[in-house]
Design brief:
about 475 residues; alpha/beta; eight-stranded parallel β-barrel; hydrolase
């Protein structure tokens, strides 16, 4: 037996990387808008360089992105042509609440997503909606300090109330926070955190995480109350950490690196702070401010399923002489047994099976792979066609590994959405040349191009994969 009959095949995007229309339809400015392309991108994303608005010296790719805001009908029709069963997308918070702290939502923003969801339903595509994919209204960053402030829970609750009620019957699969663990690596992008000099960054990050974990539980509570059919998942940037050698020190270091990731999901899935995290806070003098009722909320409203992104595995070494490789937001030692992408991401299909087994063993809840793909430089012909066999090869190997986890290991898997079914702006680098899609978009790193869509070779290949429910991976 292969994948379940109702397996949800599809693709995944994020509002800030696709929509554009940053100042249309009553939308307010968001943290993800003011992250520039170029050498200042990482300092801004890390919360070390203050950029709270646009300036004349930088290019901001999210302003226009790939103009999905005006072209979603064309894009969804192409997804339908491939046979998508689901489309994972995110809501731009500042479309619904432009400032974030208003009492009433923006009708034009609500209507925009309603139209998208109805367009999906027209083709029998199930929307899978990320409530917050790094999006935070800039007003909430400037006035409240982003997720460091407990008031954010109430603002997020208002967002959830508005969208769960408005989209009842249109959306039943929800994710609370995209790659929640990214807050530890890119805190401004992940949680709107900007640090003043000398501040205890780890204290601020873990306090912000607590607020997000409470908000996730509140979202799960509201979702189930509004519609018992709603299914709510958490979302982790996943990828197993391997020890570099069998030296027990390396093995322990790899285990500890895994725990740093699983900490978030331990809370969202099991409903309480794990002992190893509490000990770490004690050792480091991190004091998480909790309010009465927090523990009960976390315990009572755990997620229904675990979703995650998987691009690569990682390696940990305790020997300081061992070189690390670039390319990943989370650092890794080079694995001598693996090839790497053009951006240094180590390609490890078997690592996906290993990661799936570890997560399923840990939580015994259904899994959903909501991001997986290969970022590569594509060279189109004069018609915009790309013979992207390298992408097909990458995806075929990962789907086979995923299939083995289901068939051989018994992992319960709900679905699979490739990252960037259409070329979009890269979250990490802000580039367009780092392409993931089955659909080529004519646009370059500087924002030039017609935005014309054209099918790559992988388009028809993925269409066949979906039509055969993953049985035919040949090309």
């Amino acid at each position: 037996m292969g994948f379940r009959e109702d397996f949800l095949w599809g693709g995944a995007t994020a509002a800030n990387q696709t929509e554009g229309g940053y100042n249309e339809g009553g939308r307010g400015l968001a943290n993800v808008d003011v992250i520039p392309h170029g050498e200042d991108r990482f300092p801004v994303m890390k919360g070390h360089m203050k950029m709270f608005d646009f300036d004349e010296d930088h290019f901001y790719p999210a302003k226009e992105a790939i103009d999905h805001y005006h072209r979603y009908e064309e894009d969804i029709a192409l997804f339908a042509e491939m046979g998508f069963k689901t489309y994972r997308l995110s809501i731009a918070w500042s479309r619904i609440f432009p400032k974030g702290d208003e009492a009433e939502p923006n009708e034009e923003g609500l209507k925009f997503y309603e139209n998208i969801f109805k367009e999906c339903k027209k083709y029998g595509i199930e929307p899978l909606v990320t409530i917050t994919h790094f999006d935070i209204p800039m007003h909430l960053v400037k006035e409240y300090g982003g997720w460091r402030n407990r008031k954010m829970i109430g603002f997020y609750e208002n967002l959830c109330n508005a969208i769960f009620r408005r989209y009842k019957g249109l959306v039943k699969y929800w994710l609370t926070f995209n790659e929640i663990n990214v807050i530890m690596h890119l805190p401004f992008m992940g949680a709107g955190l900007y640090f003043e000099e000398g501040e205890n960054e780890e204290q601020v990050q873990y306090q912000a995480i607590h607020h997000e974990l409470i908000a996730s539980a509140v979202a799960t509570k509201i979702a189930h109350e509004v519609d018992p059919e709603n299914q709510v998942g958490c979302m982790l940037a996943a990828g197993k950490f391997y020890p570099y050698t069998p030296n027990p020190k390396d093995v322990l270091a790899a285990q500890q690196a895994d725990r740093e990731n699983y900490f978030f999901i331990d809370v969202q899935s099991r409903g309480e702070y794990p002992a190893y995290a509490l000990k770490k806070f004690e050792r480091k003098g991190i004091d998480i401010q909790m309010e009465e009722g927090d523990s009960e909320l976390l315990k009572q409203y755990t997620v229904d399923f675990i979703s995650f992104s998987y691009y690569s595995s990682r390696v940990v070494a305790t020997d300081p002489e061992v070189d690390e490789v670039g390319g990943n937001i989370m650092s890794s030692v080079k694995n001598p047994y693996l090839e790497a992408s053009e951006w240094g991401w180590q390609i490890d299909p078997l690592g996906l099976r290993i990661t799936m087994n570890e997560i399923y063993d840990r939580y015994q809840k259904p899994l959903f792979i909501v991001e997986n793909g290969l970022g590569a430089v594509d060279t189109p012909d004069e018609n915009g066609y790309v013979a992207d066999d390298y992408r097909i090869d990458y995806l075929a190997q990962h789907i086979q590994a995923m299939k083995d986890a289901v068939e051989i290991d018994g992992v319960d898997l709900l679905g699979y959405t490739t990252w960037g079914p259409i070329d979009i702006v890269s979250a990490s680098t802000g580039e367009m040349k780092k392409r993931y899609g089955f659909i080529y978009v004519d646009r370059d790193n500087e924002g030039n191009g017609t935005l014309k869509r054209s099918k790559k070779k992988s388009f028809d290949w993925y269409k066949k994969v979906i039509a055969t429910n993953g049985e035919d991976l040949s090309y």
